[in-house]
Amino acid sequence: MTRDTSMPQATVLAMPGNETLADALARLLGLQRGEATVRRFLDGESAVRVACDVRGHDVLIVCTLHQPDDKLIALMLLAAAAREAGARRVGLVAPYLAYMRQDIAFHPGETASARHVARWLSAAVDWLVTVDPHLHRIHSLGDVYTVPCTVVAAAPAMAAWLREHLPHAVLIGPDEESAQWVGDVASRAGLPHVVLDKVRHGDRQVQVSVPQLDRWLREGAPRTPVLVDDIISTARTMIETVSHLRGTGLPPPVCIGVHAVFAQTAHADLLASGAARVLTCDTIAHPSNAITLAGPIAAAVAAHLGKS
Ligand code: R5P
Q1: Contact 293, 151 (CB under 8 A)
Q2: So what's the pLDDT on residue 5?
């Protein structure tokens, strides 16, 4: 992928921990890979610095937003610093977009944090590229973000992985929200799928219905069950589903998540629960990353840079 030389120059900055994707985007799009520093003062406040020439440039900041409270202020300061250093426009590439799950006040006195964080980020950047944000009661990013947003779908890359590595599988979506991803992946991979019902009683208390998989047992060589979800956070959703699959006669399940949030010991807990393999897309750097989305993210960024 090459960039149209008539477009304004563009510079890629990485927030700490995002260097791999920033390097890939710079390489794939032929952009300057600029330097920015982010550090903490002893009192915990953030200090940022754009350490390259961005005058007249489109700047894109790469910052995936898991553990967002550690990153949001520094990210918004870096966007401001880029503008003050002369950037023409500032875009955000946040492969994992945090604060999308609290889309309503679940209890009296709470707030729909998704709306507030969207407003803050919309005030800081000119455009946004992300991957499969958790859209449930908010149907589109445009409902809460006021800047142009592009959503990159992980489904084509996940389906390609399945076609190559697990062509004889049955996909399982653990809840109604997962239906959109699992259905898309299944049709692209030419595989059957089922969607379960889930009730969450607390952060770590999840009840998932028992999958009806009898027909996959009767049809000859048993299919490998593959759990597909957008976010693996505490992993309780997947662990509960894996527990239903034990003793069914099907091979041990494979778990695929888009976003490797993995709170605390979640990754180890999921492996210990009986999953044969746990793999994720590289929207959050994690040892489980097996499916790269750098190519489709670069294509989405190129469209924003070319739109000026
Ligand atoms: C929520 O509905 C999402 O699609 C995921 O199912 C959920 O975020 C997984 O969370 P956890 O890993 O904590 O069960």
Answers
A1: no
A2: 57
The 10 Å Cβ neighbour count of residue 84 is 10
Radius of gyration of the chain (CA): 20
b/e for 204-215, b at 16 or more Cβ within 10 A? eebebbebebee
Mutate which of 97, 208, 229 to test ligand 1's pocket (most atoms within 8 Å of Cβ)? 229
Average pLDDT over residues 74-92: 98
Coil/strand/helix, residue 193: strand
CA of 203 to the centre of ligand 1 (A): 10
Q: Tell me what the pLDDT averaged over the chain comes to.
A: 93
- 198 C-alpha to ligand 1 centroid (Å): 10
Residues with CB under 6 A from ligand 1: 174-175, 177-178, 206, 229-237
Can you read off the two tokens belonging to residue 152? 């990159």
pLDDT digits (tens, 9 = 90+) for 18-53: 999 999 999 999 999 999 999 999 999 999 999 999
- Higher-scoring residue by pLDDT: 206, 170: 170
Distances (CA, A) of 171 to 108, 132, 135, 213, 218: 37, 18, 21, 11, 17
Per-residue pLDDT tens for 248-278?
888 999 999 999 999 999 999 999 999 999 9
Q: Say if strands 149-152 and 277-281 run parallel, antiparallel, or are unpaired.
A: unpaired
Q: What pLDDT score was predicted for residue 222?
A: 86
Cα-to-centroid distance, 261 and ligand 1 (Å): 10
| Distance (Å, whole) CA 199 – CA 177 | 12
Confidence of residue 4 (pLDDT cuts 50, 70, 90): low
Catalytic residues: 198
Residue 303: both structure tokens together: 């469209």
Dist CA 92 CA 183 (whole Å): 29
Ligand 1: residue of 232, 239, 243, 286 to mutate (most ligand atoms within 8 A of CB) is 232
